[in-house]
Amino acid sequence: MKKVKIYITLKPGVLDPQGKAVQESLHTLGYEAVQEARVGKYMELIVDDNGDVEKQVEDMCAKLLANPVIEDYKYTVEEGVTQ
Amino acid sequence: MKKVKIYITLKPGVLDPQGKAVQESLHTLGYEAVQEARVGKYMELIVDDNGDVEKQVEDMCAKLLANPVIEDYKYTVEEGVTQ
């Protein structure tokens, strides 16, 4: 088993209304120091260790998990997860 | 300025229907090796460097960004971001 951590973020320049809402809410709560907030997704997958896991994860991100038109993604693969 | 990265995940044991949907979609696409998928949130904040940024971020997570009843959060603070 491998544990895969995937980070999906909006590309720079893509409007992020959810991030804007978070920023404004933080200001309302008194955290005026927050200059910018951007919201993305974080996923953890447990994947059977057969074949090229990195290649599979790259494909999964490009085909389903992220929208490559407006989103960037990064991932890390951790070895030897036992369940 | 400091760049803060926040990772919000559902606590272990909390049902994750969104993760389940992702897992089933991956299976439908042929990625049968995926044993589990859990979906969380990832946020990036740019914060003015006045006072104890870590303390402020801890408060923001507990009060607004995460739901401490069902979610865990982690964050990292990176020094010296220039805009």
Question: Which features characterize this protein?
Answer:
homodimer; 83 residues; Mth169, Chain: A; 2 helices; 3 strands; 30% helix; purine biosynthesis (chains A, B); PurS (chains A, B); ATP-binding (chains A, B); cytoplasm (chains A, B); Phosphoribosylformylglycinamidine synthase subunit PurS (chains A, B)
Note the topology:
2 copies of one chain form a homodimer.
Chain A (H helix, E strand, L loop, with lengths): L1 E9 L6 H12 L5 E14 L5 H13 L5 E8 L5
Antiparallel strand pairs in A: 1-2, 1-3
Can you walk me through this structure?
- The structure is a homodimer of 83-residue chains.
- Chain A is an alpha+beta fold.
- Chain A has one domain (2-78): Mth169, Chain: A (2-Layer Sandwich).
- Helix content of chain A is 30%, strand content 37%.
- The first copy, chain A, contains 2 helices and 3 strands, in the order βαβαβ.
- Chain A has helices at residues 17-28, 53-65; strands at 2-10, 34-47, 71-78.
- Chain A has a 3-stranded antiparallel β-sheet.
- The longest helix of chain A has 13 residues, at 53-65.
- Chain A is elongated, with a radius of gyration of 16 Å.
- Chain A starts with a strand and ends in a 5-residue tail after the last strand.
- The mean pLDDT of chain A is 94.
- The interface between A and B is large, with 36 and 36 residues.
- Strand 2 (34-47) of chain A pairs antiparallel with strand 2 (34-47) of chain B.
